[in-house]
Amino acid sequence: MRSTRKRTSTVVGAVGALALAGTLVGCGSSSHTAAPLKNAVDASDAKHPEWSKYTFTVGDNGGDGSEALAKLTGVFDNAPYKVKFARFTYGPPLVQAAASGDIDLGSVGDVPPITGAAKEYGFKVVAVNRSLTPDQAVENIIVPKGSTLKTAADLKGRRIAVPQGSSAHGLALNALKSVGLTPKDAKLVFLDPAAAATAFNTGKVDAWSIWNPQSAIAVKNGARILVKGLPPIDQTSSYYVASDASLKDETKRAALTDVLKRLSREFAWGVKNPATYAQALSQEQGIPLADAKASLAAYSNRVTPVVPADIALEQKLADAFLEAGQITKKVDVPSIVDNLLPAGYDSSKLKVTS
């Protein structure tokens, strides 16, 4: 699959500091005194001097704690390559950056790989971030305090703020479809998360399809959940994507697999140390610790390979987007999957206790 877009920005800076114009939020840095995972990798993974020429850029979608956890755990301290972190406000720009080579690896929701593939971006889905709490929604459609809307059917003719091409876009589409409505029956107002928050708080939209922590914070401040982002209308998993260029280079591919394994270890450690993980999320997202704790379940995942059931769910979603006119090209999901992890890999089974 070829990339139809030029490089959108230039990667600069040292480990943990990077800016991609127009798509990233600045990442803070802090020192740490403990490194519980510094040596918690397979010895074979660390003995690759040929990897020393690489600097990998890892993108995160909205501040998932990856950079802060890397510093806290020391999981990359003995890596034979360098790592940078780049933060994106939502998924579509991250997929574009992966395709253009501005980042090497990143995690997004279920829709960005579909909209990216429809635009023929050059990337692959390489792993799944599978929720450990699949009965808890990681995103919702919310309405303001005092709203008269009671069900998804009440969205007919209403203005819904949606980050275009994001997982929340998929939730809005499927929520409407579940009650016999299409995007033509409502007004999808495409806004990035920051602009949507303003529109929601000032009454310019009737509803907002958005993920945590924004959803949790809005509810704490009086908003109400109209539609929960749970199966069968929404997935609770997210997906790792990587650039075609990195995957086609066998040596770089092997090193990138090591990056993914280390990331899976730091998140597994975070799940088993929720108090510290919440502090990491609070730091990266710039939100109160209480808000980070409230949305922690959204970040409690296990990393695994992509399996046929995931492909089937993504294909169904891609077909729904095409049917609703949200994309103009049919997406063949199997063609954009290229697992980096071996069959049976499950980060929740790793020994990561400190």
UniProtKB/TrEMBL annotation:
Glycosyltransferase listed as a keyword: no
Alphabetical list of SMART domains matching this protein: PBPb (SM00062)
Main location: periplasm
Keyword Transport: yes
Signal peptide (from-to): 1-34
Domain Solute-binding protein family 3/N-terminal: 55-273
Record localization: Periplasm
SUPFAM superfamilies: Periplasmic binding protein-like II
Keyword set, alphabetical order: Signal, Transport
Coiled coil: none
Family: Belongs to the bacterial solute-binding protein SsuA/TauA family.
Protein name: ABC transporter substrate-binding protein
